[in-house]
Write a structure and sequence with these properties.
Strand 6, helix 7 and strand 7 form a beta-alpha-beta unit. This protein is of the alpha/beta class. It has a seven-stranded mixed beta sheet, with helices on both faces. The protein has helices at 15-28, 43-47, 57-63, 92-95, 105-111, 130-138, 150-163, 184-196, 209-212, 214-217, 221-224, 229-248, 258-265, and strands at residues 2-6, 33-37, 73-74, 80-83, 119-123, 141-146, 171-176. It has a single domain (2-271), classed as P-loop containing nucleotide triphosphate hydrolases (Rossmann fold, 3-Layer(aba) Sandwich). The protein starts with a strand and ends in an 11-residue tail after the last helix.
Length: 276
Amino acid sequence: MRIAACYGRKGGVGKTATAVNLAALSAAGGARTLLIDLDPQAAATFTFRIEPKLPGGYARLLRGGTAPAKFVRASDFARLDLLPADSSCRHLDTLLPTVEEGEAPLARLLEGFAPRYDRVFLDCPPTASRLADHLFRVVDDLIVPTVPTTLSLRTVAQIMMQLKSIDPPPAVHPFFALVDLRKALHRRVVSWERETGLGFLATTIPYSSVLEQMSSRRAPVFDYAPGSGPARSYRELWAELEARIEQSRAGPPWRKKTRRAVEEAVRHPTFRTGRG
């Protein structure tokens, strides 16, 4: 079972859209797929038309003693299930011990799904707290949507800093999302990364009103707009990510120079001049 977290420290960068679409594409490709909604906003749960309710909340799940599969709900898509979020997700940091205490209830919860699923995706809230400490130690892959702006790029460097203390760290797969090439800053940031060769995925997800319709259509984008630019981009992203994951099984998760280069980038004149 391969576990991937759609994660980022900034809100509004497309984490839920990424989790929903990649999980659905994984299932469409034949993998038994579970999407776990850890965000108290429960946007992924809402998108799949599932009630945001867990009997006993995440406190009950993390305590153990109950088979986690009991709380899983089937989606309208073959081979795709969802563990919904509910209001208890806002207390996840208080439900988890510090990593120094040695307990790993999140790891234990995820291990309970291993016999049933090939892939697990986690839709994570924007956090740099105790939940992130646990996530970084239990997931295989961090999928990091990054809007091509200075602040969003800066969070990638912060993530890499935090991962320095983890051995082995998860593989990191950043990519540019909500890209609007009408904005000068977006063009500069994407161009800078391509010239620097930091290892972002080549596929970008465009800013589009089609993606914003996910909340009203309550479905992945390729379900209601299969020929749209965002749908094509997510299919390309999933194909590229699958290839990257296979490569990361036998090698380092990301280039070592990445963190320093990103830190330098946010101070570079390229990112401060001109109008976006």
